[in-house]
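Hmm, how's this folded?
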Amino acid sequence: MRLFVIPAFMLIAILPAVAGENLQLNSKLDYTSDSQDGPLITGDHMADGIAAGKPAYVILYGEGCYNSKRQARRTVSLYQKYKGRVQFVIVDLDHPLPSAQQDLRKAYYRGYIPHVVVLDASGAPVYNSSGEVEEGVISGLLDKALR
């Protein structure tokens, strides 16, 4: 029997929930500016947090951020590739957050956007960094987490 040690802050973030589904990129995004174009990603169950037992991809972003828009495009592409196998949690920092997402913000957000977190199936972070990250880097981490 293997025991996993999960930090206390992770116990708050891992909730029985269904992560985002049917994710779509806002078709009105202007990738040439930091204009406020509304939510970058839309979908179902957008207010949910992370459920235990599956790897997760979390993005924390601001709607008026050029880099967040570019990372949102990568996020939706990754969602298409991994839907059903990886949880996708979208944290839009420009709106009031539900409690599950407030806990994720407290645990990972350090004041810079976009911020991407990849968690393995046990809830341990395998990637936790601000700034844009290439799709191939995240794919490699998710593939490894799914083994």
Observations:
- Residues 14 and 52 are 6 Å apart (CA to CA).
